[in-house]
Design goal:
By secondary structure, the protein is of the alpha/beta class. The chain has two domains: 132 residues, Cobalt-precorrin-4 Transmethylase, domain 1 (3-Layer(aba) Sandwich); 117 residues, Tetrapyrrole methylase, C-terminal domain (Methyltransferase, Cobalt-precorrin-4 Transmethylase, Domain 2). The chain has nine helices and twelve strands. The chain has a five-stranded parallel beta sheet, sandwiched between helices. Strands 8-9-12-10-11 form a five-stranded mixed beta sheet. It has a two-stranded antiparallel ribbon with strand order 4-5. β10 and β11 form a beta hairpin. GO terms for molecular function: uroporphyrin-III C-methyltransferase activity. Pathway: Porphyrin-containing compound metabolism; siroheme biosynthesis; precorrin-2 from uroporphyrinogen III: step 1/1. Its EC number is 2.1.1.107. This is uroporphyrinogen-III C-methyltransferase.
């Protein structure tokens, strides 16, 4: 009974803190084109006192909002802040009573530290909500017209991070690799070593949804044997579904 009473008091205190302090909303910006931001995300940004934003967010677009902008972007070997520091900055701002938006590229809960931030902020006693964004790993399918699943060809798909080349490669028909620009050659070699067909097609797509979106077509075999440097950010799709798009099958035969 005593423990239950203490638990109830703790819950009441937490609720009082959440009412007293500001709140944090994690917003997924989408793959890059501002037109793909959701209506809910737009509303949250319009009300925000402070916007903590990543590296790949359109700066001109951000200028339309009145909230204070705080850059906390991270690129490979170039972090403006470490993740722990970002967590604390967001929490401190909310504790000051601000309406805070944490704006991230893609979707906040897919390879974006969103789960870590939500947990940290909740432990800090502030109210947290999450507005979904279009993940770049999903958008790449629509914007290249390469399906990630296709009847008779691909019934399963996995999303992986290629941040390191020792990543686990699930045995799915299609693989979508995030952050693999510098490791794709080793990932391709590993995929072949684990039994994937060396002729499996690969699509590498730079700046998904932006005016300069660029597609590079290859195969696992070709990537494993080359040292070509691809521009980043880049999303990589591996699988037979790539050949299904009109015109791509003929292109791949020439590689």
């Amino acid at each position: 009974m005593e423990n239950e009473l203490k638990s109830n008091i703790t819950n009441i205190n937490t609720l009082e803190n959440q009412i007293k302090y500001g709140k944090v909303t994690l917003v997924g910006f989408g793959p890059g084109d501002p037109d793909l931001l959701t209506i809910a995300g737009e509303k949250a940004l319009s009300k925000a006192d402070v916007i903590f934003h990543d590296d790949l967010i359109d700066q001109d677009f951000l200028g339309k909002y009145n909230g204070q902008k705080v850059y906390v972007g991270k690129r490979k070997h170039c972090h403006s802040h470490e993740q722990e520091e970002i967590n604390q900055l967001i929490l401190n701002s909310a504790l000051e009573g601000n309406e805070v938006v944490r704006l991230k590229g893609g979707d906040s809960m897919i390879f974006a530290h969103g789960g870590e931030e939500v947990e940290f902020l909740k432990k800090g006693g502030v109210q947290v909500s999450v507005i979904p964004g279009i993940s770049t790993g999903i958008a790449v399918a629509s914007l290249t017209q390469i399906p990630l699943t296709l009847r008779g060809i691909a019934r399963s798909v996995a999303f992986i991070t290629g941040h390191t080349s020792d990543v686990h490669l699930p045995n799915t028909d299609t693989l979508v690799c995030f952050m693999a620009g510098s490791t794709i050659h080793k990932i391709a070699a590993k995929a072949i070593a684990e039994g994937r067909n060396p002729k499996t097609p690969v699509a590498l797509v730079h700046n998904v949804s932006l005016p300069d979106q660029t597609e590079f077509l290859s195969t696992l075999e070709e990537l494993a044997g080359s040292e070509t440097v691809y521009p980043t950010p880049i999303i990589i799709v591996i699988g037979e579904v790539i050949s299904s798009r009109t015109g791509l099958a003929q292109t791949l035969e020439l590689l």
